[in-house]
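Feature request, filed as a ticket because there's no other form

It would be nice if the structure record came with a short human-readable summary line next to the tokens. Right now we just get the raw output. Example of a typical job, pasted below so the devs can see what we mean:
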Amino acid sequence: MSPQVLTRTLVRRVPTRVRDRAGDSLRLRRLAHRLGYAGERTREAPPVRPVGVKLELTALCNLRCPFCYTDSPRATRERRLDLSDDVWRGVVGEAIELGVLEAVVTGGEPLLRRELTLELVERLGAAGVGVTMNTNGWFVDEDIAERLGAVPSLHVKVSIDGATPELHDGARGAIGSWERAVRAVDLLRRRGVPVHLNHVVTPANHAYVGDLLELAWALGVASVRLTEAFPVGAAARAGEWAVDRGALRRAAASFRARRGEDVRVNVVPGTLAGLASIESLAPAALLVRPDGSIWIHSVQPFAFGRVPDDSLAECWQRIVRGWRDPRIADWAGAIRSRDDMPRSGLAPYRDPALDVTSTASLPSRGDTHPEPPPDLPERTQGLGAGSPAAARAQALELVRERRYARAPMRAVEEAGGGLYVRVLEGGRVFRLNAQAALVLDACTAGTLADAGLALEARFPGLDPARALDDVLMCIRMLEARGALVPYESPSATSSRSANADTNAEASAVARTASIP
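Raw output as currently delivered:
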């Protein structure tokens, strides 16, 4: 057995919980990589062309998060200029020509440049690129949701930083931002858009992570990303942001025990993981900043060129040649824990990026956190934590009014009131128990609230909250199997038309279904 195979085998035998406890120790994380514990996270050389591109369309934002990793509150106060619409159109055109497979459209808040953002998302989707858009949800309205719902393979990530309006609004510095974010999730889910939540965990909200996950489940999102506020950008200027990552993992495990894998929960280690793998994980994507500078990704504040002066192809070749630049390695090697980042003279998004194409040296390190600039927003004070139960009930008022369309299918009644179903698209065959069959029929005839009432009628005395909870579980299963599609999604019209001929009999059967 070769030394490389031996060390890799030895490290992989270390229990996961022990490896996780490396926590904020970059020394232990780097050791794991050097010993061979990297799995698929090892890539010896960059691909010939970038696989993905991240587009920060603007540095500006309408909210005021003191932990903002892009330092958007400061950029907004300083009224920084972004690339023009035409330059961004050229960037996207070249990215498509380069053959990128995936694109992330983000900011700041990208919908501050509403028409440009929608145009670029639609163009990327039409070209077959998988697109993810990040938003705080404030500007998502019926029209935006309608357009996004028509983009193939689009995923949207909405930031919600509290299980209650008080927690979220307090963190984001704007009253009403929680309600708008939750409404954005609902509008997008009604159009069939896969929605994911980004949740920044801070000392103010860490005790309510379980409640946030329950809210996410009720809203019907696909996944939740739990990440600490890491000291880059605005968070590198002031504040104490560390939380107990072990407590986050326990909250995620408790949620999985209750809800299974209905919602994927990712506890993200943060920037440290990227720094630990900086020597062994060659880049596969590039980042275009609002000022046109080209980075490898958000972790590394090093510029390899600038559009429109340089093409993406030229910048990528510089990345291929220079991703192991000694200055990058020296910078990363000097950061051994999260506390070292604010003292770095080159904290991402807080300090100007270093131009790798020049002979510039790394800036000197400091011993204290830099003073925040004047007027940098702090947390909104005096809102308290609020009631998670009341917040969930408020969100459910939106969810209860959702409608679905039955996918074209054939069905055969089961003796106990269930159904054997074959979904015509894809030909998948499966069995629905009587409860799922009842929900299938009730939802295609009305709303989720109607489906809850149908269960209550079948079981007199059934708690309405329990009935709605059961409906939500059934809806998730039926959507996953392709039996139901959101009523306002582009596929719903064709589904309703096809069902006029194929599903009348199945619908009548399902109406008479009983729960064993």
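Something like this underneath would help us a lot:
The chain has three domains: 3-40, 50-268, 403-511.
The mean pLDDT is 85.
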